[in-house]
Amino acid sequence: MTGRSETGGGPSARGEGDPLAAIGASPMAAAIRAHDWTDLGLGRREDWPAGVAALVALMLESRQPMFLLWGAEHRLVYNDAYVALLGAKHPAALGRPFLDVWREARDPLAALVERVFAGHPAYRDDIRLDLDRGEGLKEAHFAFSLSPIRDAAGAVGGLFCVCTETTATVLAQRRQRLAEERLRESEDNYRHAVELSPQIAWTTQGDGTVDQVSIRWRDLTGLAHTGTSWLDALHPEDRPRAREAWRRSLAEGRPLWLEMRARMRSGDYRWFLSRAYPRFGADGAILRWYGTTEDIHERKIGEEYLRSIIETVPDAMIVTDAEGTVRSFSQAAERCFGYRAEEVIGANVRLLLPERHRAVHAAALGRHRPESEGGKGGEAERVIRGRRKDGTTFPMSLSIGEIRTGTERVFASFIRDLTEKRQAEKRVEEMQAELLHMSRFTALGEMASALAHELNQPLTAISNYLGACRRLVERAPDGRGAEPEDLLARAIADAAGQAKRAGEIIRALRAFAGRSEGRRQREALPKLLDEASALALVGTRDADIALRIEIDPAVRVVIADRVQIQQVVVNLMRNAIEAMQGRPHRELRIVARPAAGGTHVEILVEDTGPGLPPEIAAKLFQPFHTTKPNGMGVGLSICRGIVEGHGGRIAAEANEAGGTTFRFTVPCPPAEGRTHAA
């Protein structure tokens, strides 16, 4: 590889010295001087072509990474700046074949090298190579310009490359692009999340002017609502309140919390909850507001339904906190205690208790038992006394339930005024005592009637026998002790008179027991049957009886002794309830309807019991006949006596359900009969 000096291709003249002498003492200059190039295609350094020597000198003077390939084996010569690109391959790479140095990237580099040695320059602003520079294969990027070097004959003898590693820049750009893509994706996801969220996002400028609103708001209302036009969509009743709330938040820099109604495309209004929070600058000024608007229509309607239900519940409801402060006071509570809600809310619940009971019952009404005492959940019903606004006290039942809202505990107290219940219980007790008295009186009459029936015949016989004795004495011949005979006749006559008198007394007693009129007057039949049913069902809750009362509108009044007829109904119902014990279907039916003829009302008591055997049915109304282990056998006999005493009839028969139907009649006013006849 020699050339003429005028073309830069010939050898340097002997005696001209080292062609790299003027370069200085850089590490690569020293390495090139020290390297033996004799057998590497370039020959002795003093014999290098002037062009090659000039390029090597240029490289060594530059801080730009450069390298030179020369000869058929593409021997590598490089400068100090190229050392950093070689990494651990330096210094062994100096003078070695280029493709051996970068054997891990041989395929992409070989094609470029061969192209340049074929006389075609090449430029790449980015080429990716996976290189091992002492740390394993890693991605690397380069920008370079490759130029062919020709010898004196014009043939390509070498390759000159100016290159720059762009790995850091490319990777940074890639990270930036990835970050931008992720940001765009995040923004896109946020946009979709905002549009699909039930909450409508919006922002305003620092002065409250709306500048961004979710598309969903426009879809719902048909309006963009930027600026201040959002107020136009609100219900006219809500606009002043919304305007004032927004003005106050802007002035004070406090978060907004506003429930209002907005008009939809359909023209209907729905409830929404708007919340907004400010973002402040370094100087404390509000930069922007960020808000959301959420559709709460179903929740609001549900609250209204719940409120209406609570207000219609007959029991009073009071909500208090753990300190006994009243938070809610229902309309039923207002009616019960006489206070208006605004008079009680905020006050302590002790206000509703009598002075002497406050210390005992305040904890029960206003506070719940600690969980350690078993107070978790609800508290059993208790009866205490309450105090009305006018100072009067009354009995009330109290049930307390605990409600937890996060860390807060509140208590719902359900209160029922027991005044009417106590009065009704007292009335029931009085009616029971009255019925018991009448039952005993009637039983006494029935027993007296039975005794009169049994004793009347012997007494009659005594009277007859004594009458016969007197007649015999009167027909005796004169002169046989007239005075004793007179005494005997008088004694016998007196005995007969007393026996006759006893019989009349017994008959009178029987007549009194069987035909006593009692206190018969006009009585409302529905009330009579309702009271009797209530008495009959006392203590039968576990019997699971289905009761039906059917009263024909044509029979609303009867002429009767109310207590006696109720005694009949109670007796028949009690018998029916006992008969249905253990039966799978227990239904008791009371029917009142006009009887044939229009002068009486027929009352039926039907059960679904086992029915009556024929042998029992034949003796059903006889006194002292019973099928109960502890029965006296006078109940149905008393019923018959009462009904017949009212001019009615009583009977029993089997019904379609397999049970027994008792039917009896009671007289009714003439008007009732005419109604039936019509």
TrEMBL record:
Ranges annotated as biased composition (Basic and acidic residues): 368-384
GO molecular function, one term: phosphorelay sensor kinase activity
Pfam families: HATPase_c, HisKA, PAS, PAS_3, PAS_4
Signal peptide: none
GO biological process per UniProt: regulation of DNA-templated transcription
Keyword Transferase appears in the UniProt entry: yes
Domain PAC residue range list: 256-308, 378-430
EC numbers: 2.7.13.3
Key words of the record: Kinase, Phosphoprotein, Transferase
Domain PAS intervals: 302-355
SUPFAM superfamilies hit by this protein: ATPase domain of HSP90 chaperone/DNA topoisomerase II/histidine kinase, Homodimeric domain of signal transducing histidine kinase, PYP-like sensor domain (PAS domain)
Catalytic activity entry: ATP + protein L-histidine = ADP + protein N-phospho-L-histidine
Transmembrane segments: none
Domain Histidine kinase residue range list: 450-670
Matching InterPro entries: HATPase_C_sf (IPR036890), HATPase_dom (IPR003594), His_kinase_dom (IPR005467), HisK_dim/P_dom (IPR003661), HisK_dim/P_sf (IPR036097), PAC (IPR001610), PAS (IPR000014), PAS-assoc_C (IPR000700)
Region spans: Disordered: 367-386
Family annotation (NCBIfam families): sensory_box (TIGR00229)
PANTHER family tied to this protein: PAC DOMAIN-CONTAINING PROTEIN, PHYTOCHROME-LIKE PROTEIN CPH1
Protein name as catalogued: histidine kinase
Species for this entry: Aureimonas endophytica
Source species taxonomy: Bacteria, Pseudomonadati, Pseudomonadota, Alphaproteobacteria, Hyphomicrobiales
